[in-house]
Every structure is written in structure tokens, then in C-alpha cells.
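Hi,

I'm pasting everything inline rather than attaching a file, because the server keeps stripping attachments. The sequence lines come first, and each chain or strand is labelled.
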Amino acid sequence: MKASKAIIKCLEKENVDILFGYPGGAVLPLYEALRESDIKHVLVRNEQSLVHYASGYAREKNRTGVCIATSGPGATNTITGIATAYLDSIPIVIITGQVNTELIGTDAFQEADIKGATEPFTKHNYLVKNAEDIPRIIKEAFFIANSGRKGPVLVDIPRNVQEAEITFKYPEKVDILGYKPTFKGHAGQIKRIINKIKASKKPVIYAGGGIILADARTELREFAEMTGIPVINSLMGIGGMSQESTLYAGIVGSHGYQYSNEIIARTDLLITIGARMSNRAAAGFSKLNPNIEFIHIDIDPAEIGKNVEFTLPIVGDAKLILQALIEKDLHMDFSQWLEEIEEIRNIYPVSLEMQPGCIKMNPKEIINELSLEMKDDSCLVADVGQNQIWSALYFKVFGERKFITSGGLGTMAYSLPAAAGMKMANPERQVVNVMGDGSFQMCLGELAVVRENNIGIKIILINNTKLGMVRGLQHDCYGKDNYFGVDLEFQVNFVKLAEAYSIKGYEVEDMESFRKVLHEVLENDEPCLIQCNVDPNFRTF
Amino acid sequence: MKRYVLSLLVENNSGVLSRIAGLFARRCFNIDSLTVGTTEDETLSRMTIVVIGDEQILEQIKKQLNKLIEVIKVIELTPNESISRELVFIKVKADNSTRSNIIEISNIFRANIVDVAHDSLILELTGGPDKIGAFMKLMEPFGVLEFIRSGATGLQRGSTVLNETK
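And the predicted assembly:
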């Protein structure tokens, strides 16, 4: 069998149903094999968006997303997407074409050392030199991507290797000497956690994206309710705890709720699950009392003790560890602490107030309206910038709702392709994409993909003709009106632009028209764009 | 800051060295020396890496190395439970008036003379950092033209082996 055919066969064995790609010379054999396969190929418009589509797909299905790019510029264009997936631990397999083996190292046409280039932000990567290794390598790639701490894996395959003849046999099992993730938590440590909780007066569970990746939402809620411990989320952890629960205590971090940061500052036991204590999230932790007890539960041993010193570490899968904790059947009464939390909430209320002096629309209200109108099993995909923070803070996630964003790398233009990838993975889900006019202009071409494939995402474009987040930072760091390089001066007619792609566009400037339009578009499953005009001086907080 | 010696068992793939060196650079860990060579099993290589840091840095280095798929095992070679040596070649100025002096010191250190020219000598010495340091110091007054150090390489004492599959 031709190796190219074997590659596609491997993908079929891995139950890949959709593949995002952009062809080129070095993947011609692969595309020829793909032509004869039942796998749906989605032709994107720029490789920069390619990995984000796969990321949206992966985050919807909790399965590995797959994409293909050609050698050289095709491959290098995927780097931002790969780094984005790496920092958010999203399982993706990226297959890139490479120049013929005999040309590697000669600076051949469209040659780039993508294996070397992606070493820092792939969980693992391969350059396939021997075609017979293909089935094993692809099997390993899928296994590595979606086990342990998940992440992107790149497989670089020279064109002549794709054309070689091999005997195809897909391995049943994977055996990698140096890769044996720990899943089950240490029994002794589980017992110690229980004892720490018993001794605590003001415990808090700090739950990160690991809860969602480990599919441990039910377990988290059960454990929190059983023990009566409040739960705070990180940005990536949003959705891990139902926001309708009385134990939900907000979002922590430099862009979180003030009340949540205050709760963290007063806790005596912080039970961190699947969060990596990044500089943005753990900013509020500096106020912590030095005698606090830290428990850190993480699948990745390297995260433990990396940023914060912990008193009690436990390595393993969040779902399995939570199950083990639930088995201990610990019922506690922290009502006094919960009352104190209620008081803190009242001191630092979350307000939807319009910023005084601003005209046009209130972005907080826009998100609140989405929260009220969107279905209980919908998803909001937020981009990066002010829109991300507003979305995170004012969109309520409960039930089967989801919230996804590029949390770690903060990649602008993540949301549109990710939303499209998600909607393709699950057409039943209502997917709303919130982005700013800066991000939108980075990935315009993808509108064609949305139209072509009838992907019914709703794009809420928060248009303030500025790079609002950076502008706000300039204001904070360098003083009032000291702005530079943040004006998107030319006012694009986004409605006309959407219409150029046969996507229905709306422009609104007041809440009443927004409500009307939103109500109308949420009734159907057609893609659309709603341009919401917001005052450039509207600050993030 | 202390000096730690790590011994690694890794898959003998092309690119594994760059992956490990890249990790140190990327995470700002200080590498003092790195040696690599084949093992009794040709699919595996062994590395000895000397790092400078504190306990916390060492812990992170070990964890980050273990995360690499091609790294099979990482252990610390502690001074008491392991042996580690380094090879050094020193080219030193030597004429009729100094040659015998240099040879005398070399004999005390059990250094070998591996090259003799009318105005220089190349000396070969194996040992730990203290011995090599002391020898270099004694050679300095004669005029060291150049030297090369191999970096440390080491093994655990006793019958314990790194490759447990054996």
C-alpha cells in the first residue's frame, strides 16, 4: 500500500471524521489519498486559522482534532495555532508535508525545519524518515495528544516517504518507554487531602481547565456539594462548575472578579485542581496569608511546584482523583465561611453599569443579553482582548453550556475558526462567537469557509475601532491619552463585508435593536454577523 | 547555587539532543556540561548533564526532562552513591627549563603526556572537578596555551542500573 494511503487509513482507524487542511506540493500524495476517503476535508483560508478549527473541534468532542498543512510556509503558518493549543492543553494532531528526504537540509523550495521550530510548543513531534514507521508513529501521535496532559503533536512527512510502498498494519497498542502518565491518585495523598479539609475552616476549590479536559464536571460538583466547599474557576476553568450553583464563587485572576480574588485572599486551604497557577491567574494569590495550606492536583507532575510551592501535591487524572475523594463520603459544614463569602460578594458586587460619559452600546449588557437569550446547551467562543474579559465575566455558564477561549497564549483571531470548528463537530450546538474588530480583521477570509460549509455561527462583533485592551494598558501604564498605534482608524463596513460572503450582516448601536436582531437570528441556524458599536473609551473594568 | 549531576537514559533518535538542549535554553536552566554516548542497547543513548541551581530548580529540571517523550529515565548522581569523572587535555608551554618540572607534577596527578613538541606538551588528565581544578592551577604559571574539557560523565555505584528493562 502507498504510504499516503496508509496515513489516511490510520486516520480512519482513529475515527477521524473531519479534517481541516490546506494543500500544497509536499502533501499532494496525501491529498490524492484523501480524495478517495470518506473523511470530510474542510479547506480553510489560512493555515494560521487551521489549528484553531481543529481546536474548536477537539474542545467540542473531547477528542483529538486533526489538520494538514504543506511544507515550508504552510507549516510555519500553523505555529501560532500549535502554540495556542499547547498552552491550553488541547489534543491536536498536525500532519505537515516536508520536502523529499534527500533535499532536507539543502534549503530546498518550501523547506522549513518545522520539527525544530515546533519543539517548544508541541507535546511531541516527529519527522518520519522511514515509511514503515508511519502506522506506529500516527498511533503514538494520537495516543500522546489525547492522554496525560493533552496537547498538540506534529508529524512531519516528506513527500517521497508519502509515496513509498509499505505493508500496512495498524498497531493495536502503544508502548512508549518514556511516556507513562500517572492517572490514579496516590491513596495516601487522598487520605491526607481529606484530613486537611477536616482541619480547615475556610477551604476553597480552585478549578482550572483540567476539569473540563478530564471531563470531571459532574464529579467536581458532586464533591463540592458533598463537602460544602465553594468553587472558584480560572479563565480556562469556566464551565467546570455550574454558575447556578450556590457554591460557585466566581473567576480568579487579574481579570477576574474582585470578590473572587478577595475570597482567595481569605482562604486557609486552597485545593487546586487542574490549574497551572499562571502569572495572570495567580496574581491575587500574593495577598494570601503565608500559613495557608495548598493542595495541588494535576495530571502533569511538572506543574506542581513550578509557580507556587505546595504543601500537598497529588499527581493524576482530575476525574479519577475526584471520584476517589467522593468515595471518602466526607460531609462538612462550612456555612459560616459561606456566609462570609456572601458578605464579600456584597462588598464587591458585579455590576453591568454603563460607564459614565460613554455613548453607544454597553458591552457588558451585550454579553448579559447573550447570556439571557442563548440556549442552555449553547457555547460562547470568546476571542482575545476586552471582548474576552467581558465574555468571561458576564456570560453565565450552567447546564450543558460551554465557554471557550484562548486562555494561555491569548491568540487574537482564535475565536472565529474555533467557533466554526466546534459547530462543525456538533451542528446541534448553538455557537456564538464574540470578537473585537481587531481580531476579526486578522481572519476575515475564514468567512468563506463559514458560508461554504453553512456553519451557523453567530458572530457578535464588538466594534470600537480600537485595539481596546492595549489602549487600556497604555492608559494605565503611561497616563491619560498617551495612546499610540492602537487606532483601527478606517471604519470597515462590516455589514457589507459579511454580505460579500453572503452572510447576513447587521449593525446596531442600541440595546433595543440588538435584542430584536439577536432574538431573530437565534431562531435560525444560519451564519450571521452583528456589528455592535461601542464607545472606544469604554474600559475593560 | 549548587552543582548537580544528572544521568539520563534517552531514545537514540536524531533530534533528541536538540530537544534536551532546547529545553534548558527555553526554561533558563544553567547547563554546565553535557556528554552523550551510546549504550549497551543501540536504540538508547545515555547523557550526563551537569547543572547549576538550587533544589527547586533541580526538581523542575528533572520534571521537565521527564515530560519529554524520548527521555526514558532521569536520575541524580549524588556524590556518595555514584562516580563521575571528566577528561581534560591541556596544552602547556614547555621548554628545556620547564619540561621536567611539568612532567614531575603530571606524574603526581597521574596525568599522561600525549604529545611532545619542542616548545609545548599536551597532558591528558581524568578526574573530578577538584582534581582537575588543582592541576590546572599548577599548570597556569607555565603558560596554558589551550585546553579542552569533556564534561562530566558518570554512573551509579553498585549493581543498580538505569535501564530497568534489562
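The CA atoms of residues 7 and 75 of chain B lie 5 Å apart.

If the labels don't parse on your end, tell me and I'll reformat.
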